[in-house]
Amino acid sequence: MDWDRETAALVCNALPNLSPRTFLRLVERLGNGLGHVLSAGEGELAGELALPPRSVDCVLHWKDHVDPEKEFLALERFGGRFISQFSPDYPAILRSLEDPPIGFYLAGKDIARARSVAIVGSRTCTFAGETLAQNLARQLSELGYIVASGMAKGIDLAAHVGSLAAHGHTVAVLAGALDQIYPPENADLYRRIREEGTLFSEFPFSQTIQRQNFPIRNRIITGLSAATVVVESPLIGGSMLSARSARRQRRPLFAVPGRLTDPRSAGCLKLIREGAHLFTGVEDIFAVIGTAPRASQLQLSLDPEQGQAPAREHNFSAAERIVWEHLVQLGRATADELAAAADLDVLNCAQILQNLRIGGAVTRDPSGEFTAA
């Protein structure tokens, strides 16, 4: 088989025991002839090319892991693309990593010249943390920055929503394949990011979420970004892994102090004690990484009432319109009250409210009551 570099990179990217660092050594050795590795024998792989034993085995049996023709067809049908290290569309900021992805799958807007700030934090966040993350993302988007996060519940969700509400560009770095929606309840957010932002994945099509994928994903969130802000985090969790990645990558790390007595702030307090920058407002980021791209627009406050983006025109589904119209009639209500008024199951109503929040049609206050935006 005649290999072009993009196809060879796509195959190498799908091999479970071929690390990005090993790939870099192969590129240094073979250059444009990278495809040769996929037709080499065991002796050459282990000897001349000096691959580790586990890498030798997976390269010899690469067809067990990926069918490149099917992969490119799936990409075409999905409307995505594969970008390898050889492509001019590969972000320069990722090339500077010690373990840059061999390539990645992308759907949506280009990120080749991305200027990103990562916002990460606990899935079980406080209302204050959610509000801060959403308003920080809004401000960064208004200043011309891309907001990167992991599309998880809690702080990630708030970061993406804040960016979208400001008509900004947000990148969701996925822990599974480009066509895998996780968590399922964020399906509406996934669709909006696919349409208005960028979906990013290192994983081959249809690869399901696996626990070991999350640290791999986290290094990309921080690796794409000029700085990382941890809004809330317990002492153990994915946000602390992201913080560790940012430190290894020598990228500026910020942490929001939070309340001393709240375990959801314990991780942030630990990061600050260990040298992370104290985050009190968006100006702290630019004091470290340089002037904001649109400095004249810089707003120091994270007050949710300040600088709101223009209202978005809503395109409701039938169920969303029923809930929204009942909320308008009630003025403000809890999910339980709305479910009763609209004669809906409470869990179904809560999911509809989540989608309406993602779309910017409703807001939630600290008491848990919703109002129409």
Unreliable runs, pLDDT <50, ≥5 residues? 295-312
Shape: globular
Tell me the strand order in the biggest sheet: 1-2-6-5-4-3-7-8-9
| Residues in β-strands, percent | 5-15%
Q: Total helix count? A: 16
| Major sheet details | 9 strands, mixed
What does this protein structure show overall?
The protein has 373 residues and is of the alpha/beta class. 42% of the residues lie in helices and 12% in strands. It folds into three domains: 1-65; 116-297, Rossmann fold (3-Layer(aba) Sandwich); 318-372, Arc Repressor Mutant, subunit A (Orthogonal Bundle). The strands form two sheets. It has a nine-stranded mixed β-sheet, sandwiched between helices. A two-stranded antiparallel ribbon has the order 10-11. Strand 10 (362-364) and strand 11 (370-372) form a beta hairpin. Helix 7 packs parallel to helix 8, helix 10 crosses helix 11 (238-248) and helix 14 packs across helix 16 (346-358). The longest helix is centred in the middle third of the chain and has 16 residues, at 127-142. The protein is globular.
